[in-house]
Amino acid sequence: MQRILVALTDNEPGVLDRVASIFRRRGFNIHSLTVSPTLDPDVSRITLVTDLDDRAARAAKSFLERLVNVHSVEDFTDAGPLLRDTALIRVAAGPADRPGLFQLAAIFRAEILEVGPESAVLACCDAPERIRAFVESLRPYGLLEFGRTGVIAVRSSGDPASALHPAASF
Amino acid sequence: MRMKGADILCACLAREGVDLVFGYPGGAILPTYDALEASGIRHILARHEQGAAHMADGYSRASGRTGVVIATSGPGATNLVTGLATAMMDSVPLVAITGQVASPLLGSDAFQEVDVTGVTLPITKHNFLVREPEGIAPALREAFALANAGRPGPVLVDITKDAQTREAVFDWEGAEPRRHTRHLPPPVPEADLARALALISASRRPLILAGHGVTLSGAHRALLAFAEKAGAPVAATLLGLDAFPPGHPLYVGFMGMHGSPWTNQAIQEADLLLAFGMRFDDRVTGDLKAFAPYARKIHVEVDPTEVGKNVAVDVALLGDLREVLERLAPAVPALDSGAWLDRIAELRAAHDAPAWPPDPQGEGLSPTAVLRELSAQAPGAIWVTDVGQHQMWEAQVVPHGRPRTLLTSGGLGTMGFALPAAIGAKLACPEAEVWVVAGDGGTQMNVQELMTLTQEGLELNVAVLNNSYLGMVRQFQTHFYGDRRASVDLLAPDFGLLARAYGLKAASARTLDEAREAIREARAGGGATLIEFVISPEAGVYPMVPPGAGISATIHTPPPTEAPCSGSL
Question: Could you confirm whether B4 is annotated as catalytic?
């Protein structure tokens, strides 16, 4: 089961290593991991996507909370969070391919960043499954290069207030 | 006030109440050693950084104060690793200070550079890399606070050489620690206490499992009061053996792999386990699927990650054990546990011969008889044991009951722990009688610390139970590897000559009479003595629960075997 854990941590060197080590030591795989400072420059927000069962996820959350650098951890999985991931995709596309490519981009609300004689670069910021669908639809053109940022998550506006650090979670 | 970083470090140690540190100097920590010399803080020069770390550990376990160990960068720092891991596994508050290469050289593979914060990340509660003299006081203060907050543990502070030599303003108040309180559990809610009390009230066969947390939280009196009020019997883990008076009518004994069969059977028949400051280690529980099948479980624990980690519990009370027990005790009912205590007495009667455990089979001096004699002659001693068969014999035979009188590496099982840890314990408690109990294997692992002992003029005695084997490994081979004795036949030096070379008195005993006399002479004083007890080479530790089996699956005696395939030396 896909799990989404969001941690607020000190924004200082080595913290990511400590967080990742919790997963490495126990053999838990991390599918996606994003880190960025929050509006509080001393605090970072880490979003982790894993596939742990309930017991392992509770243990991972608990071990993360034991880290001195961690302020708080929340499991967003059951909260129906809003998820976003950004992909940059370079596809093989000559002039004849462009009309179809542009149509696809419009359907997926992707941005065309660059067009060259033999290829084009597109950016798509959307939910992970929409990105997967977009990539599949591009596959027939020939995928030349593909990069993703990893998932970031926030609770939906209908959810109760987050228990995360109030100064850093907005 | 502007001071050099090294002087700031020493000033911080002094303000933390540190008057004794253990360590080994080297290039990257030299500025600190230079400052230490002028600080008035006593330094014990070990012969190896691992020994220094175990000394700080033993000092902490015996005194309850935070042990401090200092080492240089690179190999000095990596030599601390086993000591830090030992302290981490047994929740011992320790602060390790390491020198690091100058900050411009960081990451350049400079001479004696190692990423020690990276290396020690999984075996410390937290660690710091300090590159500026301004960072020394905040890191040191936080380190001491963290080492002792909640579940104690080791914290490492790695300080670059230039941070030690450059000047900064020493601002003690401005360096007040902040992070150590981050994850301390809030007071236990009344509702949780009420749920626990309801389970206790409904219990007819309660059993308290006392662990190291009793000592760490200073909960001995609270435990005794609670157990007596509830009428609940008490079993102990290895590190909980000094948590409860062994002669008390409610004391059930040592549990786990080499625990008493009646203790383990009581766990299996209990309807309620009260786990106090213990973590359901696999050496205690055996096969989890077969563990305590009829028992509801209440876990009192300061570290939330331990709750539900190995064993699912019905009620978790997260907090300091002493505080929780002091809140629970006034409301706990006197249970109708008479029939249960009778049942435990019945289980015990089936095994509890005049000498329990029975002396091991085999020719020669019995290790349990030696330990009985030792504890009879030195009943108030601090026992510092190494790891192996002797450790388990000691746990089975020697009664402990006063807090901080059994020091042993329970979690990591570190051979070579006992001698240096005993040096730390003797320095913490100079008036106490301290005995090292070690095997011939562990003694050879950190034997160089005998010289430290002599240099410091310490009067503690070392009992080496020599069976010319790595005995516990051999015992496992006997039971689980068809008695194929791979690499356990251990040549040892002449321990008497060795001890004298290190400046100790020495004795050797092959009979119980010789043992008795050697112990008497060692206790008469006039310097430290190493006594080699030449014990039966084939003696095993029984009872024994095979690893991974349920704790009822007790092996009582060695299997019938052919003649040993390799002779003793």
Answer: no
Of A25, A65, A68, the CB nearest to B146: A68
| A window 24-43, beta carbon within 8 A of B | 25
Contacts of A59 (CB under 8 A, 6+ apart): A26, B305, B309
Question: Which residue, B526, B535, B536, is CA-closest to B564?
Answer: B536
Helix, strand, or coil (residue B455): helix
Q: What is the pTM of this model?
A: 0.94
Q: Is B129 on the interface with A (CB under 8 A)?
A: yes
Alpha-carbon distances, residue B388 vs B84, B418, B443, B499 (angstroms): 20, 11, 11, 21
Residue B538 designated active-site: no
In whole angstroms, what is the distance from residue B483 CA to residue B250 CA? 40
Q: Is ipTM > 0.90 here?
A: no
DSSP element (H, E) containing B377:
helix B367-377
Catalytic-labelled residue, pool B111, B167, B176, B517: B111
Is A58 part of the contact surface with chain B (CB cutoff 8 Å)?
yes
Give B455-481 pLDDT, tens digit per residue: 999 999 999 999 999 999 999 999 899
Question: Do strands B382-385 and B315-318 pair parallel, antiparallel, or not at all (unpaired)?
Answer: unpaired
Mutate to test the interface with A, among B182, B302, B309, B318 (most CBs of A within 10 A): B182
Rounded to an integer, what distance in angstroms lies between the CA atom of residue B431 and that of residue B461? 14
Long-range contacts of B516-521 (CB under 8 A, 24+ apart): B516/B373, B516/B377, B519/B373, B519/B374, B519/B377, B519/B378, B520/B377
Q: What are the tens digits of pLDDT across the range B530-561?
A: 999 999 998 999 989 998 899 888 888 877 65
